DNA sequence: CCCGTGTGGATAGTTCTGCTATCTATTGCA
DNA sequence: TGCAATAGATAGCAGAACTATCCACACGGG
């Protein structure tokens, strides 16, 4: 398969493919001459993955590179690779550590009480603390218990996902599945949350949406 | 309060405040002279909201304008305003409707079976269909049942949120709370999902993260 | 074996977004 | 009186993600 066919099959314009090659998101094709190369199904799949990460996940090129690098690593445990992929998928930046520290103490204690077995330096701990901090800055007076319901939901979802991934034959498929799952199910989860919102608000409000 | 104090209190630089004024995200201050105006607590709160939407929610200026417009509307029912705010919060664009249609038939039927009472033209229905389509294009062979677990989680979360919002004294507070909740709890939910992932993957994998 | 289209690689340009910087004519305040 | 602060206008800038152009060469139907 040459570049024009790769473009036709995936729907990605040739200049964009060249851009991804330049940025090393796509491995070079197999060279047949000084200015000729062929591409295969691996390139098609990788292009599809890139488009999902960029279009659906909203990731930047750097983040995509990070995810792809994590998928490609053969020297790390599955656990590490999953963590690395998750790290690349994070998008917002956080307040300074010293601002976050006191809030993190609270959220960490709450996580502890929940009984989850976690690395003490796991990055999402900071996201959680940052969220609580932002809530308070916007006038909410609350502790980490406000997350209880969300944690129950996340627990149920994650249990199913890990079970699914653990049943896959090889590690590359596992990581790939996890990454796609994270990005796609994120959108699904938000859509479902909105739909459930709509449903429940009908139960609490009258037909005109007034109270 | 003059602009320099507004800047100091919120931490937003003066040129950025001027930019938001230009873009009509912030209402003009009360004029006291040709080149003087004063700002109040409403400006402070609105700036805080803008920063959350932009920094945490990752919304663009246009989307922020949409959310703020929804909050400000006094002629629509709470139900409509919530829908409008949710619409503004959506970020990814979708495949063409004719591509989506057959998949939507499946997801709509599944939503029907779940018993949620929904508007037939509710936008998140498309997000859900688009997700299923993307999953299939990436090699998953599955129906909408794959979302079952997520829907259960979303249902539990949404029930709690609507209950909370319905208990608020006035409508503006309700909309404001819903918007902030959507953006902030989105981050919290993703962080919790990752933490739950970490916990559960320890239960399925051995200490080195291998199987 | 010839020639028009396709190709890889390099370099430069474009568009959009979200700010920043500068300027001008005031105004507030010490 | 004089100097910093202000509103509003205009212009500039940096980063991201492409997109366009160019060149020397290669492929393949006639």
How would you characterize the overall build of this protein?
Two copies of one chain form a homodimer. The first copy, chain A, is mainly alpha-helical and 211 residues long. Helices cover 67% and strands 3% of the residues of chain A. The longest helix of chain A is centred in the C-terminal third of the chain and has 34 residues. At the A-B interface, helix 3, helix 5, helix 7, helix 8 and helix 9 of A face helix 3, helix 5, helix 7, helix 8 and helix 9 of B. The structure holds a DNA duplex (30 and 30 nucleotides).
Radius of gyration of chain A: 21 Å
Instruction: Kindly state the number of beta strands of chain A.
Output: 2
Task: Tell me the series of helices and strands of chain A, N- to C-terminal.
Answer: HHEEHHHHHHH
Total of DSSP H or I helical runs spanning 4+ residues of chain A: 9
In one word, what is the shape of chain A? Answer: elongated
Identify the most extensive interface between protein chains.
A-B, 77 and 77 residues
Helix/strand/pairing category of chain A: mainly alpha
Task: Characterize the quaternary organization of these chains.
Answer: homodimer
Taking the alpha carbons of the first and last residues of chain A, their distance comes to 62 Å
Strand content of chain A: under 5%
Adjacency order of strands in the biggest sheet of chain A? 1-2
Helix content of chain A: 55-70%
Largest sheet of chain A: 2 strands, antiparallel
Q: In terms of per-residue confidence, which ranges of chain A show pLDDT below 50 for 5 or more consecutive residues?
A: none
Mean pLDDT of chain A: 88
């Amino acid at each position: 398969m040459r570049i024009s066919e790769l473009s036709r099959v995936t729907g990605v314009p040739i200049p964009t493919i060249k851009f991804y090659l330049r940025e090393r998101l796509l491995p070079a094709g197999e060279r047949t001459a000084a200015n000729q190369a062929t591409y295969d199904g691996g390139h098609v799949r990788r292009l599809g993955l890139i488009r999902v990460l960029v279009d659906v996940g909203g990731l930047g090129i750097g983040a995509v590179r990070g995810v792809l690098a994590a998928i490609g690593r053969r020297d790390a445990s599955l656990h590490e690779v999953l963590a690395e992929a998750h790290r690349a998928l994070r998008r917002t930046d956080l307040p300074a550590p010293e601002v976050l520290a006191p809030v993190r103490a609270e959220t960490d204690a709450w996580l502890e009480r929940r009984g989850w077995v976690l690395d003490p330096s796991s990055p999402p701990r900071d996201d959680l603390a940052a969220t609580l901090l932002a809530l308070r800055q916007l006038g909410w007076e609350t502790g980490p218990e406000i997350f209880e319901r969300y944690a129950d939901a996340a627990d149920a979802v994650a249990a199913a996902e890990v079970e699914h991934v653990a049943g896959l034959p090889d590690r590359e498929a596992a990581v790939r599945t996890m990454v796609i799952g994270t990005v796609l199910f994120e959108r699904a989860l938000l859509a479902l949350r909105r739909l459930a919102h709509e449903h429940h608000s009908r139960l609490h409000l009258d037909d005109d949406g007034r109270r």
